[in-house]
Amino acid sequence: MTAATKPAKRPGNVLFSSGPCAKRPGWSLQALDKAFLGRSHRAKEGKARLKLAIDKTKALLGLPAGYVCGIVPASDTGAFEMAMWTMLGARGVDALAWESFGKGWVTDTTKQLKLKDLRVLEAEYGRLPDLKNVDFDRDVLFTWNGTTSGVRVPNGDWIPAKRGGLTFVDATSAIFAQPIDWPKVDVVTFSWQKVLGGEAAHGMLILSPRAIERLETYTPPWPLPKIFRLTKGGKLMKEVFEGETINTPSMLCVEDYLDALAWAERVGGLQALFARTDANARVLLDWAERTPWVENLAVDPATRSNTSVCLRIVDSVVGKLPLDAQRAFVKQLEAMLDKENAARDIAGHRDAPPSLRIWCGSTVEAADLAALTPWLDWAFAECKAGLAKAA
Questions:
Q1: pLDDT at residue 389, as a whole number
Q2: Superfamily assignment of 269-390 in CATH?
Q3: Which of 202, 211, 227, 382 could hold 186 in an S-S bridge, CB 3.0 to 4.6 Å?
Q4: Residue 188: CB partners within 8 Å, gap ≥ 6?
């Protein structure tokens, strides 16, 4: 088959969005038949479903003793904002940013919290900041996996076990897909609609004993909205981490998350999720290695994401177009595949360099990614031919 020949086979599931991500294989609305609806979430049965979601999360992730996990409002963003607003300011802060979400946390620390003792360690898309420059006597903020750049930290080896400050980790596109070195992290946040393909609006907040100590011994100088408050009378509000949510959750979303967790258990648990994700990414990364018109946006192979794989176009013609024209080319390619029912939502993030971004998390099937790659070649050839005709 040549690149200009339209492929005959389409992916069985054409949903490759990086958030919300594909539902688990075999999902249907019948999975939500047991949802606790039309009742107060504070009823005994409602709290039991919420606590079950928390307990299953802790078990699947293998959280160490003393770590707590809670369901909080407003997705990963709400969880990370809650952590920043309640705990930052006790020490100086090192904020790492190499893509749009990390830069968003930098904006909050500089323009909203207006921290005075703040160092920002930035890198361009495709690279990490120099991790050797991080000072762990300070609080450290970073994304474990940069969703919009496809660049992740390779591991937790660069974080010392003994440190003065806390580590705050936005792990929303890494959790359940990449090993998290739990003793190295104090605050971890994620959302249901990412790696396990759950539904939106709910965040998860994981705290180490050191983070709990910070909450119970430090009062920030700024006012805290009600939905951010995690202590009462100087003590952690333990009920938040036992199923009594701060605001009203969607019990439909809770049931959907429980279904995703049950699927994860059925396929073999955390290690199986890692293996599925790695196998998915390998399909796309191997294709990129043998395809002359693309290359991974992440420069260092050790930092390449296995979930949000970002690929930039390096073709001798398209790669030399002005950035706006490259971005338009990517959107045209995406629209062509959408029209052909071959792929959905694969254009890179609006803040990223012109690129493709294809989700490879565990809820995606490797066979669908294998079926996608010929369509990528075909769409690229068609769009490039269109450029030649326009010229």
A1: 86
A2: Aspartate Aminotransferase, domain 1 (3.90.1150.10)
A3: 211
A4: 169, 171, 175, 180, 205, 206
